[in-house]
Specification:
It is built from 20 helices and 7 strands. The strands form 3 sheets. A 3-stranded antiparallel beta sheet has the order 4-6-5. The chain has a two-stranded antiparallel sheet with strand order 1-2. Strand 5 and strand 6 form a beta hairpin. Helix 1 packs across helix 3, helix 1 crosses helix 5 and helix 11 crosses helix 16.
Length: 475
């Protein structure tokens, strides 16, 4: 193992130990400054540290399960069958039991642990500009700022109320430095502004990104370091994240402008129906603004989407699948992104294939989507509806890409149709529940609970956090 990678792992391990202590973890810093200095002694160390951050996001507690097809999808009632014992009373929006408490605490700890490692990069990088070649300083710092924004935004969406409810409500700490001091708890609006600030800075730095400049990168250029930009929080992923954040802060003109930059770039073409049919692009790879490289994707598929059935599986039954897609059986998503169980006792079960490794070229393999071009069209459609009363142009562009006929007129309830399109398009990607929350819908399709009355859209802060840091009520 390289020295830099070893130091990165030691840094992660030291934080894991600190998390288990009785002190609030936000008040601590890495045990070994020597390890940190060794890691950041050259450009390779920064590259490996950033790679370590991305690798840490491929965790079952976060984006390799719970923040995508796991807890977030269960809360959005995306599945008809799932391992219910893994979630306790969460589907009924009761987070008080031991199972939800443990899951929520693990999510909090893992996300802030990753933020700590991002901040460690940012705390050193400005003093080390001279170790970087080409545009690597700007790109690595830009990605780090974008990652800090990405992680804080998802924490805000989990632990802060929506703008629709009360943007002045206390929410989470925004942690921007390595310090002994406890980071203060900020309001929803204050956290959102810090996220926006990080993204604005990241956008400026990432103007050197090859995905924007068109610079051709090969293995001969810096050992190919700037290849595969979709697996990094690149310039266009930052614009896509800006669109998400501005929807959250109800700045719809800014959201539409950011989404339009991505759409108009034409960098992210729709997935080929031929490749979808062949099973050679299950993750819709060309459409991903940002995705994670999960080398254990086959194990994930075998564990949670096994066609032979296992107790850990997540699935839809056939009638629910047809209802999702409005009986439009020519819809490419219905046709190609689900497969039937091969188990005779579960013949009615349908398993999502987004997380099943694709055949064919390596480009299409091991990708877990976190932001896709389809979401930009959905954002554009909603913004158009809010400003002009019609969101059909963008909505129909998405439908056409999925082999579904155009809507001739606005639905009687545009937001109900928007929600249904999110269900169809982004199933298993962790965005549906947050859409319901942003719109402050009292009901979720598939549940009879009043989610607003139950305060079900906002997780309670972990007990260790409220005890050690004396946080205010966030719900």
């Amino acid at each position: 193992m390289k020295a830099g990678a070893k130091a990165c792992l030691l840094l992660l391990a030291s934080f894991s130990l600190l998390l288990s202590s009785c002190n609030d973890w936000l008040s601590v810093q890495p045990n070994s400054q020597v390890e940190s200095d060794e890691l950041f002694s050259d450009e390779r160390g920064y590259k490996e540290a950033l790679a370590g951050v991305y690798s840490s996001m491929v965790s079952a507690s976060t984006y390799a399960k719970e923040m995508t097809f796991g807890a977030m999808a269960v809360l959005g009632h995306e599945w008809t069958n799932y391992p219910s014992s893994s979630y306790g009373d969460m589907p009924a929006y009761d987070y008080s039991g031991s199972v939800p408490t443990a899951l929520i605490t693990s999510l909090w700890q893992n996300m802030y642990n990753t933020i700590a490692n991002v901040n460690n990069i940012l705390s050193h990088i400005d003093a080390d500009k001279n170790v970087f070649t080409s545009n690597n300083y700007s790109i690595i710092k830009g990605e780090a700022l974008a990652l800090r924004a990405f992680l804080h935004f998802d924490l805000l969406r989990c632990f802060g109320v929506s703008f629709e409810v009360n943007s002045s409500m206390p929410s989470i700490p925004f942690v921007s430095e390595m310090s002994y001091k406890v980071s203060p708890q900020l309001s929803v609006r204050e956290v959102a502004q810090k996220i926006v600030d990080d993204l604005v800075a990241a956008e400026d730095l990432l103007k050197a990104d090859p995905i924007l400049t068109g610079e051709e990168i090969t293995e001969m250029v810096d050992n190919g370091y700037l290849m595969n930009r979709q697996m990094h929080l690149n310039y266009y992923a930052v614009k896509g994240l800006q669109a998400r954040v501005y929807m959250w802060t109800q700045e719809y003109d800014k959201a539409r402008a950011a989404a339009s930059v991505v759409i108009n770039s034409e960098v992210f073409p729709w997935a080929s129906d031929a490749l979808l049919q062949q099973g050679n692009d299950n993750s819709l790879a060309t459409e991903q603004l940002f995705g994670l490289n999960n080398v254990n994707l086959q194990t994930l598929a075998d564990t949670y989407f096994n066609l032979e059935y296992s107790a850990s599986n997540y699935s839809l039954d056939q009638s629910s699948l047809l209802e999702y897609y409005d009986n439009q059986t020519a819809d490419y998503r219905y046709l190609y992104l689900f497969k039937s169980s091969t188990n005779a006792d579960q013949i009615d079960y349908r398993y999502l294939q987004k997380f099943t490794p694709s055949g064919g070229e390596a480009y299409y393999t091991n990708k877990m989507p976190l932001i896709r071009i389809a979401e930009m069209y959905l954002i554009q459609a909603e913004c158009d509806y809010r400003s002009t009363g019609s969101g059909l142009v963008a909505l129909n562009a998405l439908r056409a890409a999925r082999n579904v006929g155009s809507l001739e007129s606005n639905p009687d309830d545009f937001y109900a149709e928007l929600i249904r399109e999110y269900r169809r398009e982004l199933i298993g990607e962790g965005q549906l529940f947050f859409l319901y929350k942003r719109l402050n819908r009292s009901s979720i399709i598939g549940s009879d609970a009043d989610v607003v009355a139950l305060k079900g859209y906002t997780f309670p802060l972990p007990q260790s956090e409220t005890t050690a840091a004396q946080r205010q009520e966030n719900r």
